[in-house]
Amino acid sequence: MDKLVIEGGKPLSGTIVIQGAKNAALPILAASLLAEGTITIDSVPHLLDIDVMLNILRELGCRAEHTGDTVVLDTTTLHTSHVPETLMKQMRSSIFLMGPLLSRFGETQVYLPGGCAIGERKIDLHLEGLQALGADIEEIGNRIICRADKLQGADIHLSFPSVGATENIMMAAVLAEGRTTLSNAAREPEIQDLQRFLNAMGAKIMGAGTDTITIEGVAKLTPCRYKVIPDRIVTGTIMVAAAATRGVVTLQQAQPTHLSSLIHVLRRAGVQIIVDGDIIKVGSATRPKAVERIVTSPYPAFPTDLQSQVMVLLALADGVSILKETIFEGRLKHVDELSRMGADIRVDLNAAFIRGVPRLYGATVEATDLRAGAALVIAGLAAQGRTVVEQVHHIDRGYDRIETMLSRLGARISRYSPVPNN
Question: What's the whole-model pTM score?
Answer without folding.
Answer: 0.94
